[in-house]
Every structure is written in C-alpha cells, then in structure tokens.
Amino acid sequence: MVRPLAIALLAALAAASAPAVAEEGLLRRLQAAAPEIDPHVLSLALEARDCAMSHGVATAGERLAVIDYSRPSTERRLWVFDVPQAHLLYREYVAHGQGSGENLANRFSNASGSHQSSLGLFRTADTYQGGNGYSLRMDGLEAGINDQALARAIVMHGARYVDPALAEKQGRLGRSYGCPALRTAVAREVIDTLKQGQLLFAYYPDGDWLRHSRFLGCVTARVAGG
After folding, report:
1. Which of 4, 132, 198, 200 is 20 to 30 Å from 59 by CA-CA measure?
2. Strand locations in the chain, DSSP E?
3. In order of start, what are the domains of the chain with their CATH numbers?
C-alpha cells in the first residue's frame, strides 16, 4: 500500500517535471518544422523567450524570430515561428552590420557608430516609414549587449542589397549599419508578423554573452535586477 506521504511526493515530482517535458516536446515540434536550424540555438531562443515571458519582460511571444549569426550571410539564417502552433512561418536571408564582418559575422557591439549587429533578446515595437521604407523598431532587452538598439536605430527593414543573386557574385550579402535587413519582397509581411511586442533572438557563440545573459539560466534576481 502506498502511503499518503509517498503519493504526495510522487505528485510533486510529476508536477515539477511537467514543464520540462512540455518544453522538450515543443522543441522537438519546432525542430521538426525547421530541421536545418541548430537545435542548440533553437533551445537557447526558447529558453530566453520563456524567461522573458515568465518575468513579465515580454507579454506577447506568440511569434519568435531566431537569427543565427554563426552562419554565413549567403545562407538563410532567420527563422520566424508561430510558437503555440509549432509552425515555421518564414525562413529567410538576413544581413548583418558592415562592422561585424564580411560573409561571416564575428564582431558584435552595442555602441553607436560601430555599424555592428547586436546579439541577445529583443522585443519588437512599432512600425514606421523611414529612409529604408517600412521598418520595425526593436527594443534590446539586455543591458550592455543590445539595450542601445532604439538609440542606434537598429530596426528591421527591407533592403535591395539583401539579394541571393548578388551574394552569389560577390560572396556575401550586402551589409547594413547593424540592422537585420531583409529581402524587400518579404520585409513587410515579416515585419507585420513580428510587430507589437513579439520577440527576436540573435545568436552567436560569444562565450561572455552566453555566460552572463539575463535570459539564459533565468536566475530571478538577474532578470529582476537587469
């Protein structure tokens, strides 16, 4: 006969493991929808999203964009997911900043004038018509990593230099001033999918950022304290 204390303990253990099991299931479903994405990168993106959502830093999060800057610009390295449906919405080319590198990005900055891309978790904001056409403001959520995005005018927009045919000729896409620029043919629809509080996670295997990001490891004090 199982004693009441043992039953309570088993129930507690089952409850504690349920979120992790659900998260693993979601990861598998998203990975199946986009088998070419690095599962480690996708796992980190989901971890950052869940941390931001659980601490009220983000309140939307149905859409999640993931950029893997460890891939060359000549490859599709931006994925946009409908997370609740575990559905891939877009798989696209995306430019990095002129200061970040040629075909391969390997330098990242939060500083104005660097013309470098930034890493980490962003929350999308409003749209506007600017010098690069229809654009999406992004609020960097990580202090010292990407929190100058609004001040730097790091936005998502379309650009003619994001052209796979051009990349074949010159060995890389054209580059931005740090913005995640997209093909003009898809920019508006991708932006409309991501606007108004959705999340974007920009990855590169930068050890210092990975160790200290407020959204990876999800320590409550770290998130609350900024």
Report:
1. 132
2. 63-68, 78-82, 87-92, 120-130, 133-140, 155-157, 199-203
3. 4-225 (2.40.440.10)
